[in-house]
Each structure stands twice: as C-alpha cells, then as structure tokens.
C-alpha cells in the first residue's frame, strides 16, 4: 500500500532548482500552512511537466471555462527553496477535479511496471512507495509551469557546435578534433 500525502489545496506550488549550474537539484515543491514538501525530479521531468501542464491547462480551459478567469501566475509566486526532498519521483501525473475546479499534480516514487499486473487506474494506490497529491488552482499551476521553464532555461550555456552544456571551467567540445 502506498504512503499517500495530500495537500488539498496547496498554498503554493513550484517547480525549480537550487544549487550552482551543473550541480543543481531540481524539485517540485508545495506548501500548505507551515508544512513544506519537496520531491526530487530530473531536469528533463521539469521541462516535460512545464510543456505538458501548459497544454493540459489549455485543453481543460476549452472544456471547462474557469469562472474566476484562468490567470497566468507570476513565477515569483511559486518560489522553490533549498530543502531535503522526501523522495525521487518516478512518475508525474496530471488530473482535474471538475467539481472543485482544481488541478491535481500527482508524484509517485514508484512507476508501475508494464510486466506486472495491468493497472487500468493510474491513480491506483496498490503500488509501494510514496504518492503525493497536490491540488492547486489553474493560476498556481501556470505559475509552476513558468517557474519550472525558467529554471530549466537558466542552466549552463550550450556549446554552439555540439549542443552540450559548457562548464564554467572550460569545455572540451567533441567536435574539435
């Protein structure tokens, strides 16, 4: 049985990084009251979440118009602070609670394996490990998307020849033979 943690709803939610470029730690972080929850993610997961969440929000806005207006949040509204993550997310899912108008961001420590039982319900709690469910407004999720995209873009500059990140100490480009 999974250890389920819910912030329903969150006070704030953010995706970002802390640390020096090249050695950054990427997290999805949420607060509710005095509690702060950090989940370790990969840079690529943050980039993909930013893209997919923005598209997801656009799709639900067409089907379920937001009565208060689907405002784009300011990335500064979803800061990420240095903290010890609870676990590393293997799977990230998005959902929408139509009745309450809240977006669900679900983070799972263990991804279900296709070789095991066939799970039709992606929100099935029969897997081991932590499961975090964060319920947030559309504006909060848009702010998370913006802060995550900004964190990904603020990394090390890329080499114009090989497109690999360049270290501040120098770069040995594989294209310079």
- Can you name the CATH architecture? 2-Layer Sandwich
- The pLDDT mean sits at 85
- Would you report the number of β strands? 7
Largest sheet data: 4 strands, mixed
| CATH topology category name | Secreted effector protein pipB2 fold
- Which runs of at least 5 residues are low in confidence (pLDDT < 50)? none
Morphology call: globular
Q: What is the H/E string?
A: EEEEHEEEH
- Euclidean distance between termini CA atoms: 54 Å
Q: Work out the count of structural domains.
A: 1
Secondary structure tally, helices: 2
Global structural class: alpha+beta
User: Which bin fits the share of residues in helices?
Assistant: 10-25%
Question: Which range does the strand content fall in?
Answer: 25-35%
**Strand line-up across the major sheet:** 1-7-6-5
CA-based gyration radius: 18 Å
Main CATH class: Alpha Beta
Notes on the structure:
- This protein has 177 residues and is of the alpha+beta class.
- It has a single domain, classed as Secreted effector protein pipB2 fold.
- 21% of the residues lie in helices and 27% in strands.
- The strands form two sheets. Strands 1-7-6-5 form a four-stranded mixed sheet.
- A hairpin with a 4-residue loop joins β5 and β6.
- The model has no long low-confidence stretch (mean pLDDT 85).
């Amino acid at each position: 049985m999974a250890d389920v943690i819910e912030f329903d709803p969150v006070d704030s939610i953010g995706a970002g990084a802390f640390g020096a470029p090249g050695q950054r730690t990427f997290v999805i972080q949420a607060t509710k009251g005095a509690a702060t929850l950090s989940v370790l993610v990969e840079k690529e997961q943050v980039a993909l979440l930013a893209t997919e969440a923005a598209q997801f929000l656009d799709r639900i806005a067409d089907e379920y118009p937001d009565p208060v207006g689907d405002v784009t949040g300011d990335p500064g509204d979803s800061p990420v602070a240095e903290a010890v993550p609870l676990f590393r997310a293997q799977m990230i899912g998005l959902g929408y609670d139509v009745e309450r108008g809240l977006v669900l961001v679900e983070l799972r420590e263990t991804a279900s394996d296709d070789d095991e039982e066939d799970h039709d319900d992606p929100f099935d709690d029969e897997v081991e490990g932590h499961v975090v469910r964060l319920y947030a407004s559309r504006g909060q999720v848009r702010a998370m998307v913006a802060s995550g995209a900004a964190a990904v873009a603020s990394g090390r500059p890329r080499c114009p020849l090989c497109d690999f990140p360049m270290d501040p100490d120098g770069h040995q480009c594989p294209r310079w033979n």
